[in-house]
Amino acid sequence: MSGISSRRGDHDSEPSRRRASIEPRRSGSPVRGNCRISTHWPKSVHVSGHKFEPRTAISILLDEIAPDVAEARYELHPQSRLHVPLHITLLFPFVLRRDVSADLLGELRSFFGNHSRPMFELTHVATFPDVVAYAAPEPDGALKRLTCELWSAYPETPPYGGEFGMSEPVLHATLAPLDVAHVETVRARVEPLLPVRCEPSHASLLEEFEPDRWRELEALPFTTLTCRESPTSSPPL
Q1: What are phi and psi of 18, to 5 degrees?
Q2: pLDDT in tens, 169-192
Q3: pTM of the entire structure?
Q4: Helix (H, G, I), strand (E, B) or coil at 185
Q5: What is the set of domains in the chain, with CATH numbers?
Q6: How far apart are CA 160 and CA 170, in angstroms?
């Protein structure tokens, strides 16, 4: 996601940022080509004495943009309503919550304020086999550029903690784990609602306010211009 060349302020604490750890990859994690895919957000970070250490993430929230899809998700997986809204992750994990400062928020506002709104559609239900079903955003080029430029601007916070090396994350809006809802049940419930056009006005910095429970900490508006891409055909996984 353009790089920000000057990012050092009172929030700068690289050792503390790098404490964020992620759940080890399970054997047989799904892949797309050479890209290993992260299918869920890592477990909460804890430090000595089992103290909860809140994290942050940068995402596009979709509950208000695609309300029918969001409601379908909560029907298919009721527990998801307690954890995080329907979303597309741009960068996770980001900094620890205690490292969020006025300087950092200013940098993020500037970053997104210099980017056009990404325009895409949730087009079909796809799966990370045997793990989760998700709604696929297409075209996803503008979203991928945001992720790559954010990663370039904040190289100490690689997507999914660097678990997948330099591989490009597969952008997705998780609907339900496949041990909770069968893929055909998810498709039958969600695909009649698709496609859904999405033109988000802002990205969101999310904070973990309780273990594995997330809410918006700061809205990060895009410029009022819109980034449009030609649709591409991509078959469901």
Answers
A1: -80, 0
A2: 899 999 999 999 999 999 999 999
A3: 0.76
A4: helix
A5: 51-227 (3.90.1140.10)
A6: 11
pLDDT tens digits for 108-148?
999 999 999 999 999 999 999 999 999 999 999 999 999 99
Decide the pairing of beta strands 132-138 and 173-177. Answer: antiparallel
pLDDT in tens, 196-211: 999 999 999 999 999 9
Q: Give the Cα separation of 35 and 167 in Å (integer).
A: 5
Query: In Å, how far are 85, 90, 98 from 147, measured between CA atoms?
Result: 19, 5, 22
Q: Which residue has the tokens 């969101």?
A: 204
What are residue 208's DSSP bridge partners?
214
Query: How many other C-beta atoms are found inside a 10 Å radius of the C-beta of residue 153?
Result: 18
Provide φ and ψ at 152, rounded to 5°.
-65, -40
Helices (H) and strands (E) in the chain — how many of each? Answer: 6, 14
The three state secondary structure string of 199-229 is CCCEEEEEEEEECCEEEEEEEEECEEEEECC
110-to-107, 200, 218, 222 alpha-carbon distances in Å: 5, 17, 13, 9
